[in-house]
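Hey, I'm writing a tutorial for new members on how sequence and structure tokens pair up, and I'd like a real worked example in the thread rather than a made-up one. If someone can provide the structure for the chain below, I'll link this post from the tutorial.
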Amino acid sequence: MTDNILQLIGNTPLIETKALLGDGKNRLFGKLESANPSGSIKDRVALAMIEAAEQEGRITKDTVLVEPTSGNTGIGLSFVASRKGYRCIIVMPESMSMERRQLIRAYGADIILTPKHLDVQGAVDKAKELVASHDNWLLLDQFSNSENPRVHREKTAVEIEKDIGIPDVIVAGVGTGGTLSGVGSYFKKKNPLIQILAIEPVSGIPGCTLHSIQGIGDGFTPDNLDTNLIDDFVIVNDQEAFDGMRLLLEKEGILAGISTGAAVAALRKINEHMENKKIVYFITDRGERYLSMNLFGKEE
């Protein structure tokens, strides 16, 4: 029991998704990050960045928090900021789902939209411009803030090890690089032979067109991504990610978002070449925030 909802961030369940692929070749464990209070893995990062800034004296009651994001960090920051009494401005591409915008506004934050064709880099540039022109505005910057990988190294990875020991394979998307780098560095020290596989949208590769897998493949290499940890990339296209969302819902009853669908698509590919492995992937957010995209079925 708690009287502070922020204390419910983290310690998420790990579910063995036995029915997902159904062949029993490998054990597939989904870290249910959608169980965090505002519905995504980014609650961890939001709380860690804000509390570190508080401890360092960089935040006062008049500070305005600013963050560029493809959506989930914006929701998480809006949620944490609302509980702590801070004003928050989220800068995000106009291509992000309507539900994400609605959730951010519901938590009381302001939104500034940037042109779709500029992708997340356009939001980053706009956020930096805003902070540079206003006193007492603070850019938390999930892409380079060391609290991002730290919280996954010291908490998320520890939770996984407590539940199942050291996995053989970690499958993670590359958005900010925080999850992959944090969890990956923790387990690489425990077992250098562990495989760290990065999910990359086929159109998220530099030089390719825009993709629809919100939350990963932002079109640039973030400072928080330690590429030395990556053993291989698993390339996933939009349709494979959408199919992965539907498969997870059909087989396991888990309504999850597009980046999780991409993880399921990656699992389907690597499962063909592996056997008797403990594989961990991340159910990063809830599927409700994508319903307007009509990805789960036909409209009535």
